[in-house]
Every structure is written in structure tokens, then in C-alpha cells.
Structure to design on (260 residues):
């Protein structure tokens, strides 16, 4: 296990989602994106074993996020995030995740962070991609796939690459067949500038001839795969820069983090 060295930390704040302001202790107003100008209620709860955030529009619940806490290792596992369908794609999940992770750091309740992806068998109409939004959010907070993707894909382990065209709101993706476990990986790629899924299908077709590029994307944290994510030391700076509101806070958060 590595010991993070906070002296190497440079505070370079990064906004993972849309800006928002607090109207009072449990009400926010989103300042950018499709929900700009809209106020939402937000309730957070913290117990010995869990942390939750619930988002309301007027009195209607429109989103929630839940974290399991393992007290003995101070591990936080984000696992259940949902936003009502018409309001998706406007940063609401990112805001809830931001509030939860931040509260856990402020209260010194977690030093290790994971994301457990919940597989849905019914709600995505049979599309092979799952959890696109959560993959984006994970990357923006510095998480990397639990599976060591660069290692799994290296050394001629890829036996087949099949592009999957964009479909009904799902970005294009690739299906990778492998010689070894897990045998099949479905992945999409993030643009390095925006950390949004690359919408251009050509990129995925071109990659058929270039599996070296896939390994490279994996190394750079730009390849989102089906599966769980964890926060490793390579992502600590990104995590802290996304969550802290000033330098002192950032240094404090950074010095506490430990690898899963
Ligand atoms: C996953 C989920 C909670 C995301 O909620 P959301 O409010 O849409 O998430 P955000 O808007 O914060 O998404 C973060 C970014 O991902 C992008 N994104 C989300 N879904 C996307 C998609 N299908 N294609 C491309 N980009 C997508 C958003 O546009 C946003 O990028 P931006 O800030 O550049 O605009 C929501 O899609 C959902 O409830 N899904 C069903 C339940 C589920 O799968 N939960 C995950 C279990 S862990």
C-alpha cells in the first residue's frame, strides 16, 4: 500500500459538474447547464454505516445517492445513484456525489473510496452498455476501473474488437474479446478535454486497426468499462481538486486519503 505524500500536491481546482449555489442549508440553485436557474432541495443523512443524499424538485423526489460505510477501514462505497429520467444529463448526480464525498471527508468518516456499479437487467432495453453517467462521474472524480484494464488488455490479450454504434442516447462503444478472464469487456472512451463520452463513431471504427491505442486510453484513465471503480493514488489529486473549496481544505483532504 502506498503512502500518499501531500507535499507533492498542487491545488488546481476542477469542477466535476455544473456550478451551483446554496440558498440555505438544504436548498441549492443550479447555475449552469440544462437546469440553470432551477432550485432543488437536498437532504443528506449520515449514520454509522451509510451516507445518503436525496434531491427534491418542489416536494417531488427526483434523485438519490447512497454510500455504504465500512467503519473499520474507513471505506466509502458509493453504489446506488439515480436521477429521474427527464432530468438526467444535467449534472444532478454529480452534485449529489460531490455533496456526499465532501461531507465524508469533512467529517473524517472515509479515507478510502470505491464505486460499486449496479447492473440493471431491465431498464436499458438490452443495450450492452451500462452506467454511462456513472462511468463519466467516476472518471471526473479520479476513479479508475477496479479491473486493471491496461494489464488485462496488454500483451496480445485482445482477440476481437467490435465497434457498437450509438443508439437511443447511448454513446458509441467497443466490445473487446479477450483470451483471459473476463473474456469480454464493453467500453466507451472519454474525450480528454471534456471527460465526456466521445460521440464520434469513426473513433471506434478506426480503433479496430489499432489495439495499442486502446491500452493507451486505459492508461490515461479515458477508457470506461462495465464494472466497479476505485480511487487509487493516481486519482487522489483529481479527487481532492474536484471536492475541496480552498487550498487548506485540499491539503487536509489529500493527506488523509489511502488506497483501497
Ligand atoms: C447514472 C445516473 C444516476 C446519472 O445521472 P445524471 O444526473 O444524468 O448524471 P450527470 O448529469 O451528473 O452526468 C455526468 C456527466 O455524464 C454525462 N452523461 C450522463 N449520461 C450520459 C449518456 N448516456 N451519454 C453521454 N453522456 C452522458 C452527462 O451529460 C454529464 O456530462 P456533462 O457534465 O459534460 O454534461 C442516471 O443516468 C440514472 O439514474 N441512471 C439509472 C440508474 C443507474 O444506472 N445508476 C447507476 C448505479 S451505480
Amino acid at each position: 500500500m502506498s503512502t500518499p505524500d501531500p507535499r507533492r500536491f498542487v491545488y488546481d481546482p476542477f469542477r466535476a459538474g455544473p456550478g451551483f449555489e446554496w440558498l440555505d442549508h438544504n436548498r441549492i440553485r443550479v447555475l449552469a447547464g440544462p437546469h440553470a436557474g432551477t432550485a432543488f432541495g437536498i437532504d443528506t443523512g449520515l449514520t454509522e454505516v451509510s451516507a445518503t443524499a436525496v434531491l427534491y424538485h418542489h416536494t417531488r423526489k427526483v434523485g438519490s445517492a447512497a454510500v455504504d460505510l465500512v467503519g473499520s477501514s474507513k471505506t466509502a462505497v458509493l453504489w446506488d445513484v439515480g436521477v429521474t429520467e427527464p432530468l438526467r444529463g444535467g449534472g444532478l448526480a454529480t452534485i449529489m456525489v460531490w455533496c456526499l464525498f465532501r461531507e465524508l471527508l469533512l467529517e473524517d468518516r472515509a479515507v478510502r473510496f470505491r464505486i460499486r456499479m449496479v447492473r440493471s437487467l431491465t431498464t436499458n432495453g438490452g443495450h450492452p452498455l451500462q452506467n454511462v453517467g456513472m462511468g463519466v462521474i467516476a472518471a471526473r472524480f479520479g476513479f479508475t476501473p477496479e479491473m486493471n484494464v491496461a494489464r488485462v488488455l496488454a500483451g496480445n490479450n485482445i482477440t476481437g474488437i467490435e465497434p457498437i454504434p450509438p443508439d437511443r442516447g447511448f454513446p458509441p462503444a467497443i466490445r473487446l474479446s479477450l483470451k483471459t478472464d473476463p473474456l469480454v469487456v464493453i467500453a466507451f472512451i472519454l474525450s480528454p478535454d471534456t471527460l465526456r463520452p466521445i460521440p464520434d463513431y469513426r473513433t471506434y471504427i478506426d480503433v479496430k486497426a489499432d489495439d495499442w491505442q486502446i491500452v493507451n486510453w486505459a492508461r490515461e484513465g479515458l477508457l470506461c468499462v462495465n464494472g466497479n471503480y476505485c480511487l487509487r493514488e493516481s486519482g487522489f489529486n483529481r479527487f481532492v481538486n474536484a471536492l475541496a473549496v480552498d487550498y487548506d481544505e485540499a491539503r487536509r483532504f489529500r493527506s488523509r486519503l489511502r488506497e483501497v
Notes: The chain has a mean pLDDT of 91.
